[in-house]
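[Q] Does anyone have a clean structure-token version of this?
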Amino acid sequence: MKFREDVMCALLPRRAAWKGHIQDPASQRLTWNKSPKSVLVIKKIRDASLLQPFKELCMYLMEENNMIVYVEKKVLEDPAIVSDENFGPVKKKFCTFREDYDDISNQIDFIICLGGDGTLLYASSLFQGSVPPVMAFHLGSLGFLTPFNFENFQSQVTQVIEGNAAIILRSRLKVRVVKELRGKKVAIHNGLSENGVPAPGLDTEVGKQAMQYQVLNEVVIDRGPSSYLSNVDVFLDGHLITTVQGDGVIVSTPTGSTAYAAAAGASMIHPNVPAIMITPICPHSLSFRPIVVPAGVELKIMLSPEARNTAWVSFDGRKRQEIRHGDSISITTSCYPLPSICVRDPVSDWFESLAQCLHWNVRKKQAHFTEEEEEEGEEEEG
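[A] Here you go.
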């Protein structure tokens, strides 16, 4: 039960805080300690089709619910919004922030995403600690992680504000990257590192620098632009379990099992299952199958001593960087999951996404025998 206790540490009251009651994972409910007052609206950038839904949602939140609405500053710099005189009075009421510069983690009660799955991943990256509940509207292309339709957004948002909603706790990965200093300076903005968490201290004696990330989908280690095989060692709780020789390896959460890992041949795991997946990318081996390990383990990935080239790592498709000899990537399950608000319940929503987005097990049904065919079959058996 250690994993469940770790998950609960992220659900302790904070902000206008909500409480998570965990008995049966399929019946988790959203409960507010007090009415939410602030909401972060995340909109897919450079998508003109989202401007009208964005305006309607923000006006509803401000005028009908008297809420404080936070948006990223660059969202309001869209020419279509700047030139809209009717939206001008509403625009002045926004609270704005800049990614990697401003920390809003303690000011948000819940999050609304407008777009595709990428908006949910982006929301996750903004919160390196506890994450507010996220309500994601399907206004993008795939929409596996965005279950809400926008047509009747008013009633759905009202239900969330009133606490009448189911949630699913999507586990995240805590990733620590340790690099040897090689004479390069690290860009720091207002005391924040590139991912928005407090800049780590540098151990000048050892000559290493550490960076930390919270990852919702997957950590991908690949060979980058090199034509050579990726050659990395994978350790589990300090023990070498395998060396990956191929295009790379994916370490994913159950949420990420339906993303890159699924394309690489892994099984799809329900987000309520406490696990970490290890999936090779085009391994040069006939026997390297994807595996699932318990959520409580610690993985460590390093370049093999025999590696002919460096490797590259990315976190939910962001912050891509090079990994050299002597660098390491440590991965554990974070105690800060992402609470995703459900349309119905965690099980129904997941299978609905499998069917609608991935067309899981879609096949033309086999026709039944006619009476004549059945009689012929019986005669042949006789």
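[Q] Thanks! Anything notable?
[A] The first strand starts at residue 18 and ends at 20.
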